[in-house]
Amino acid sequence: MQIYGKHIRETLKQRIYQTARQISMKMAVVQVGDDQPSQVYVNSIRRFGEEVGVAIEVYNLPASVQQSQVEELIRQLNNDPDTTGIMIQTPLPDHLNTSYLVNSIQPSKDVEGIHNYNLGKLISREEGVKPSTPKAIVRMLKEHDVLISGKNVTIVGRSTIVGSPLAVMMTAEDGTVTLCHSRTGDLAAETRRADILIVAIGRKNFITADMVKEGAVIIDAGINFNEDGKMVGDVAEEAKEKASLASAVPGGVGVITVAELFDNLCILAESSSSHN
Ligand code: NAP
Description:
Elements: E1 2-3, H1 6-22, E2 26-32, H2 36-52, E3 55-61, H3 67-79, E4 85-88, H4 98-102, H5 116-123, H6 132-143, E5 152-156, H7 163-172, E6 176-180, H8 187-192, E7 196-199, E8 217-220, E9 224-225, E10 231-232, H9 237-240, E11 245-247, H10 253-275
Parallel strand pairs: 1-11, 2-3, 2-4, 5-6, 5-7, 7-8, 8-11
Antiparallel strand pairs: 9-10
Helix pairs in contact: 1-10, 6-7, 6-10
The site of NADP nicotinamide-adenine-dinucleotide phosphate has 25 residues, from helix 10.
């Protein structure tokens, strides 16, 4: 059975809308250059912001911008009392130091939950903001009553925004986690052991039916485009047919991710208003 993210997004949207009526919130998005997928994501943030009544300020910087100029902008946003959350849209041009810039955001304004301080809190299992895509995946599993505790969870892809934090979060849910990547020796053996298989690598239809256990739960976070411009995931349709539940692409994890970003903004706003 295919599972979708729309109703989860709508539920989150209602909650965010209510919070935005009680606490004024503003998100600053720092965007460098004109990367097309980045533009699509930033537009979806703008639209969601309009729908829930949250102000979004996008700072469009040219691809030639210097590191020091981006640092200065982040310093100003850190000091701006009206800015609740800051995100830097990636990928950044090669001459910019992404990690340094992300870690120059004040942790209390790190709306993506990817500052080293917040990742440290994630590992220590403290409350706080968490990266949006892993949050969306865990929420999707829970909303569909998928038991994680004691299950073999195989994650394919170890990026700092998806696979690695997800491994920490699924371990915190008492799953037994195997984290795979491009150097994994026998990937099919690892994926076939999975009760819950989560894939985020960015290669269309990479996971085939022979790599999946009958009845497994599959979460496909991949976003790729085929020759006709149609969006497809990392998991082939015939592999999803063997699953008891499989997330759709499009319409699955991706539609929840933006809502999770705004959920993080609410967490930051609530935390800052309780400290004032
Ligand atoms: P990324 O930073 O490029 O990381 C890709 C990961 O996949 C790496 O860990 C890489 O291994 C692994 N990988 C690549 N080829 C592999 C192979 N042949 N076998 C096993 N592992 C392989 O990508 P990302 O930012 O995590 O994004 C991954 C996918 O998720 C993309 O399609 C992206 O569009 C999508 N995504 C979706 C959402 C959403 O909201 N749905 C959000 C973010 C990303 P190494 O570490 O060894 O290189």
